[in-house]
Amino acid sequence: MLRNYFKIAFRNLLRNKVYSTINIVGLAIGVASCILIFLYVKDELSYENHFSKADRIVRVAGEVIFEGHQDAFSVTPPPLYDAVREFSGVESVTQFFQAGKQTVWYQDQSFTEDKLLFADSAFFRVFDYAFVAGNPATALSTPNAIVLTEELAQKYFGGAAQAMGQVLRFSKDSYTVTGVYRDQGHSHIAASGLLSRLTVDSQTPEDVRNNQWFNLNRYTYALLPDPQHIPDFQKQLDVLTEAHVNPWIKENRLSAHVKYIAQPLKSIHFDTRYGGDGLSPKGNISYVYIFGAVAVFLLLIACINYMNLATARSAKRAKEVGLRKVVGADRSQIIWQFIGESVLLTLIAVLLALALVQIFIPNFNTLTDKNFTSDFFMHWEFLSVVLAIVLFVGIVAGSYPAFFLSGFKPADVLKSDKHPKGGSATLRRALVVLQFSISLIMIIGTIVVFMQMHFLKNSDLGFKKEQVMVIDIPSGDSTLVQHLPLIKQKLEQHPKVLQTSNTLSIPAEGLSRTLMLMEQDGEMVEKTMDAIAVDHDFIPVLGIQMQAGRNFSPNIKTDERSGIIINEAAAKWLGWADPLGKKVITGNEEIADNSARVIGVVKDFHITSLHSEVQPLAIFLVPQSAGYLLARLAPEDQAATIQFIQEQWRTFDPEHPMEYFFMDEFFDKQYRAEEKMLTVFGYFAGLTILIACLGLFGLASFTAEQRTKEIGIRKVLGSSVSDIVLLLSKDFALLVLLAIALASPIAWYGMRQWLQDFAYRVDLSWWIFAIAGFAALAIALLTVSLQAVKAALLDPVKALRT
Amino acid sequence: MNKEELVIETQNLQKKYITDTVETTALAGVDLSIKRGEFVAIMGPSGCGKSTLLNILGMLDSPSSGVFKFLGQDISNATERQRAKLRKHNLGFVFQSFNLIDELTVEENIALPLAYLGVSKAETNKRVQEAMERMGIAHRRNHFPQQLSGGQQQRVAIARATVSNPALILADEPTGNLDSVHGREVMAMLAELNESGTTVVMVTHSPSDAEYAHRIVNLFDGQIVTENLNVKRHAAELL
Hints:
The complex is a heterodimer.
Chain A: H1 2-15, H2 17-44, E1 57-66, E2 69-73, H3 80-85, E3 92-98, E4 102-106, E5 109-113, E6 116-119, H4 123-126, E7 130-134, E8 145-149, H5 150-157, H6 160-163, E9 167-169, E10 174-182, E11 193-196, H7 197-201, H8 206-211, E12 219-223, H9 230-251, E13 256-264, H10 285-312, H11 314-326, H12 331-368, H13 380-406, H14 410-413, H15 425-458, E14 468-472, H16 478-492, E15 497-503, E16 512-520, E17 523-534, H17 538-541, E18 546-549, H18 559-562, E19 563-567, H19 568-574, E20 583-586, E21 595-602, E22 617-621, E23 628-633, H20 638-652, E24 659-662, H21 663-668, H22 672-706, H23 708-716, H24 721-755, H25 766-792, H26 796-801
Parallel strand pairs in A: 6-11, 8-10, 17-22, 19-21
Antiparallel strand pairs in A: 1-2, 1-12, 1-13, 3-6, 3-12, 4-5, 7-10, 8-11, 9-10, 14-23, 14-24, 15-23, 16-17, 16-20, 18-21, 19-22, 20-21
Helix pairs in contact in A: 1-12, 2-10, 2-12, 2-22, 10-13, 10-15, 10-22, 12-13, 15-22, 15-24, 15-25, 16-20, 22-25, 24-25
Chain B: E1 6-18, E2 23-35, E3 39-43, H1 50-57, E4 65-70, E5 73-74, H2 80-90, E6 91-94, H3 106-117, H4 121-135, H5 150-162, E7 168-172, H6 180-195, E8 199-203, H7 207-210, E9 215-220, E10 223-229, H8 231-238
Parallel strand pairs in B: 3-8, 3-9, 6-7, 7-8
Antiparallel strand pairs in B: 1-2, 1-4, 4-5, 9-10
Family (chain B): Belongs to the ABC transporter superfamily. Macrolide exporter (TC 3.A.1.122) family.
Keywords (chain B): ATP-binding, Nucleotide-binding, Transport
GO molecular function (chain B): ATP binding; ATP hydrolysis activity; transmembrane transporter activity
């Protein structure tokens, strides 16, 4: 019997090529998207899974309430290490911090490494990385030891075995390789190597290590006996802050309140609340949701095509159903036959989908910043997901046609002059409306995201980010910093280098909040605000406008210690009608030297992305710093100019490779998440509309076929081709209009939510919806009219004879 | 075999079709008994209820009221599943428009009832072969229905109706779509089947086809108006 079903299914597929193609292609696209998205979601959810103790590791994060303003940090003070070690029910504690950008020498080669951590010997007790060489228990228990990932050992020494015992030179110290481990899975700790923390601890003052509770620079992790201990651990943290940390802060006259939070390891990847979390890029759980929803939608639309086409052409299968019943099939047998048929079709679609996945994996990798390969094809987990998709889609898509077709009464369908109507037209229409609503939501989403991106990139930021080259000055090289005025001079001699600036801070970089005393109604009031340190040329190089007062001047020596520039937002926030000359005290108020005066006010400029409003800002003068060198270049011949700058730079710093980037690219990186969203929306909006149109094409052709006789009669009675096209297209146009009415409010609501993330955003004007609706309508009508014209041109004599 | 056993017995069989506005009576109280081995022809003008009656007898449709006994068992209120079971074990159908499955070959079409009966593969092959030979279509076994003439298609349909050795064959205008030569061929086959013991009930417009039956039932406006014994056929049998 099964063979019989398959035979019929196969012969039906071959006989109805258009119908089969529409279904198989639609389903294949849906399934391929599902597979790719499954890979993405699985990968995103796999963080920390390779640590066998992952579910009982917690990170201590801190919330600081400062002037009613709450900040959250993933970094904690050094003394927390000893304090947590005193806790009951803690198996192990490890504390580490980022080494920053380091230049590493081996023999005569040098490399820049920025993913190294200073860690203690407990690190490998908590995080059980697999060691390729060396002993995890002792690898970091001596100063000047370094443990490398297999990758880094390969890069420097050509293998793990060769690396052991070798010495790597850093600018301050040298380190001996004591171990090599394999970094086999995703972790938020994306380190390429670990340096023994003992090396630097011995150089850190004891007071900082033991008593400074407001120095937030280290990551602290604890290993608990089991996950149930987390609440107890949290209680001990609360006791610590109330009994010790907050009293200490008060004693040191800081008006802050601290709370420590035990954060389960596995939750870290998606938790974006905590600042200073620079270990690895954060995951975005809303992407996981958006991708997931898109996958389900695509598959749903493809399933709807199958259901619609299967019921529409049910008239053709009715006789077979009737006959099978006559010779003794009962209803359940017919149901299983049709479900089997859709499972078979899905199976073919899935094979095609696997080919599509193979082809599109590289594009998908770019889109998601991942590194998927097709190795997973033979993995049991993957195969079982594919099997689940086949069965799920086969049964979901097949069930409605199966129940519908199996309900035919043989007595009705076996009469040659009687044909059953092709299923419930109302349901089919409702499903088409659903398909087009989903497509429209995607189209509207794409337009809105595109417009917002255009807006973000082209808004007036209050400074000119274009044609500004930024050179990263390596830290720890004091001679280079001393030479900076000379370097600036040399560079500016080139006609295409318009102006340069040496600055500690640049826009789009993390800002630090500084505590200051500011004059308000004749009294000095404690305030915190964002602060940046720049040289004399920063404001002109970036084209920032002065609103009042003046820029820092190299001729006025007092500017360096007692000059301060604020922005308009700061003046407004402080209630200063005339800010010039107002008194500001930074640092410790007992040192009178630290008092400064406001010498200028700049017009507001966006130092951070347009996600947030312009915040009050204080600008200090630091004429020479190991931050960045900015160079405004003339737009023409930039390659030659850059080469000139590189040559000049090398004469001053032959040791480090010169690292540079452009201000506009750096600033726009802040919109990477949105840019990705735009690509995702763009691709999938295209796919949803494509699959929906495939379905519409199929439906239109069946409608035309069903109405052949009617069209023939109309033509005999004098109807023109355009009348017929209109007749056939009108119904579908109505469905799309209904979809527009349905989709618009949903899309409006969703996109309004999305735009809430931005302090500066585009308006959701009516014409966005009009454009999307018009586009959908045009595509749908084009699809339908192809069929309609074909039907209308048919010879009426032929049409009436059948 | 007990010749007097009743295959079909109906009492006051009624069928009404009710739509939103109109109630149409298709059968207005039919009393009919058919004995095992009989060949009965049902005749009457279009719309008299012939096909409705045949569909109810074939358990493809259920009566609105009245009693319908099949092999002595009352099935007026049987479920769809019970009727499907009775159908596949006891009935064979032949239609005016042949109703072969276009996607299956001659051989596969004939084998279909056996598949639903769960007959083994070897047994199926044997019985299909016999049926094809009996109908003279064995050389066409791998052809699809559209590749055959009308007469050949109807022979395939008869082969399919008889392959499971049903007690009763229901034929609905079996010669309606055939020319006279092929029509006579088909009638001869039905008569032959009847002679070998199968009960046949046939709906027809054609008086010449009706000549093959033992008994002719005339239906008018949903009621039996006359029942005539076919003297010729009885005489032939008595000889």
